[in-house]
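pls design
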């Protein structure tokens, strides 16, 4: 959907909602054209870290014992 810079700024909330729905917003000015789209977010922290860090433990199980969760009042 083509629009001008002025219209894009005035109706940013609406354009942002359109981008979230998958539409591509094309913002035109005197010097060129810019594309505004939504970027998909990673589904989980583990998914976002895949390939960047190595995970050796089972993250579906607790890593601390019940005693380790007790407050230290001493």
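designed seq:
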């Amino acid at each position: 959907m083509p629009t001008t810079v002025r219209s894009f700024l005035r109706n940013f909330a609406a354009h942002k909602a359109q981008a979230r729905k998958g539409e591509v917003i094309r913002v035109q000015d005197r010097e060129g054209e810019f594309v505004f789209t939504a970027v998909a977010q990673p589904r989980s922290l583990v998914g976002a870290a895949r390939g960047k860090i190595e995970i050796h433990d089972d993250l579906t199980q607790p890593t601390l014992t019940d005693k380790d969760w007790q407050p230290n009042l001493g």
